[in-house]
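Q: Is it fine to ask for two folds in a single conversation?
A: Yes, each is treated on its own. Send the first.
Q: Here.
A: Result:
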Amino acid sequence: MSEARADGAGAGPVGNGADFAGTGAVVTGAGRGIGAALARALAAAGARVVVNDLDADAARAVAAETGGHAVPGDAAGEDGVAALIDAARDRLGAIDLYCANAGVATTGGPDAAPDAWELAWQVNVLAHVRATRLLLPDWLERGTGRYLATVSAAGLLTMLGSAPYSVTKHGALAYAEWLSATYRHRGLKVHALCPQGVRTRMLDGTGAHGQVLLAPTAIEPAEAAAEALRGMAADEFLILPHPGTAGQYAARATTPDRWLRGMNRLQQEIEAR
């Protein structure tokens, strides 16, 4: 995709049947978990990776491991996103692939604190808007670009016990759908990575709901990353690492009352534990 890289060497395309060799890639939230696994998988596939995380030491460690370049900092706020993209372009020459992986999992419902709701909106939704606002002009001019949003299956279904997470992940999915519907004919490839449970610190913080709903079928971050690369290579919009997700999504869409009754039964079972 990229026509040039900062050191003058060529870069490979990530179009149909994506070959990631030489691709200039940015991965946010890449200090651990799915983000770190994405950085490792992309580097192993030959991509040149910029590793971003709020945890500067974690970002530098993953960058050192993958031969990438660490750009620690915020990947959600206006200033942080702009600084990340500027630094990545300085390093890569052009950004071919942006993996918007950073996210926050806030528990609770209407009782969740206003600042918890605000943080979820900023990181899980507006970070995507701010990144694409800066990425799209170059991508549309070149007629090529690739955007991977780590959405979570909560964006397709819901996550009991966590209204801010569920609502904002629905928003992230809706924005990814809008991007694809609007710019697909101009060369933009958009992907929504929607795993269920993944063995990360985020899963550890989901409490009883996560242990009942997610932990039994949780996969390793490397498995989610491998599915992400496979799905991008196949130009799939929805990338579903868990085989049962598609059926659950179809049931939600076609028999919503039955699906909601089933989810409510699960909620009652968790409350009775």
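Q: Second one now.
A: Result:
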Amino acid sequence: MGSLKRLEETSVSKSTERLALYEKYGAMAYGVILQIIPQPELAQQVMVDLFASQQLEQCIKAPTSPGCNIVRLARSKALEANLRATSSAPLSEPPQSKDDNAASLVFDLSFRQGYPLRTVAERLQMPYADVMKSIRNYFKYLRTS
């Protein structure tokens, strides 16, 4: 009986930790997921999967910031779900408008669509250093806007 009670207490403790993480980082994680998956229903499914996953335990125990780890995990889960939803669609470029620039295109392909920077550089026929510079410029733009 004692081991059953400890198991229940451990389960309640983990549940409480997950709830605390959700309350603290849930909005941030959902924002990241929505950047990758703009469909709210699918994004919510990914969010539930994120906070129900065993990998969340590693975020709690990791020596680094739980927020950073949750954002990384949210991004990877969203990319996986996006890949399943699009059935491994080829590298696609978002529709271009007059306001779009290389920096936002590079960011979209690398962060939202999950393509490695080398692949983005090859696809856009840009040197790798320019791809890195575009990402840096996009982050500067985000900070000022």
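Q: Anything structural to flag on that second result?
A: Two points. The radius of gyration is 19 Å. Residues 2-86 form a domain with the Rna Polymerase Sigma Factor; Chain: A fold (CATH 1.10.1740).
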